[in-house]
Structure formats: structure tokens, C-alpha cells
What we know:
- The chain has helices spanning 2-16, 21-35, 41-53, 58-71, 74-102, 106-130, 133-136, 143-161, 167-181.
- By secondary structure, the chain is an all-alpha fold.
Amino acid sequence: MIYLQLFYTFFKIGLFGFGGGYAMLSLIQGEVVTLHGWLSAQEFTDIVAISQMTPGPIGINSATYVGFAATGSVWGSVVATFAVTLPSFILMLTISKFFLKYQKHPVVESIFMGLRPAIVGLLAAAALVLMNKDNFGSPTEDVYSFIISICLFLAAFIGTRHFKINPILMIVVCGLAGFVLY
């Protein structure tokens, strides 16, 4: 029964997860942590961190790890991964036949114009999902961790956005700073 729920859940996420893996994160958290309770918020945060570090798209990596965590078996990983990629595969086969022919059509252009703000919203929701007390600490519980987390976040944001520092270098520097400060 859990495999059917897993398949349905990740098929839905794959179908409505426009904007890529980071946009899927808020959908995955809503389904996996809030609705089904397969994982705790801390476990989900750990899975997101591991998914970011492993090669491949974060949405697919997250589905793989969640599938295993929810079922305790590799088959859960297989079902979740297959389910999250299946809608994209079906849509790409269908759309590719028509897109090249109709890509300059006003209706198609307006659909893509409407999807852009939705994708930005999904990406912002993913960022907000990760801005929780498990990642940043809490100003009421551990002020030191909270201040360090905010400073590292601001340094990474300003470094990559304003100074155009390579994001990989920024990850390494923030990781070293976190190791030293914590």
C-alpha cells in the first residue's frame, strides 16, 4: 500500500513541479513531512542536504532518498524515482512533437509568460522551506547558532550575487567557516 501512495505522491510532484528540483522541494516537504508524516522536518532537511551534494538533479535525488526512508527498502527508492520522472518523460514526448511547430504561436508564448512567475514563486517557497529552525537555529533557543547562520547566509548571498564568487568556492568557504565556528 505504501508503494502505491509513494508512486501517486511522487507522480503528482513530478507532474506539478515546474521549475526544476528546487521548486519541487516545497511540494515534497508538504507531501512527505506534513501530509503523510513519512519523515520529520529534520530528516527532510538532511535529505535535502545530501541531495544537493550528490550528483544529479535535486528533485530526483530527494525522491530517491525519501522513497528509501519511507519504506526502508531499495524498492521504495525505485518507485519514488520512477514516479517523479515519469510525468516529465510523458510530457516531453507529447510536447516535443508540437513545440517546434508552434513555439512562436501567441498562445504558446503567453502560456510560458504565465509560467515564469509561478516558477519564481515555487523557487521562493523552496528557499523558505529551508529557512527553518533546523537549518538556522532559533533566536530564542540558541542565539549564537542563529547569528552565525544568518551571517553565513548573508555572506554567501552577497558573495555570489554582488561579487560573483563561484558558488562551489562559496560552499567550501561556508562549510569551513561552519566547521570552525560550530
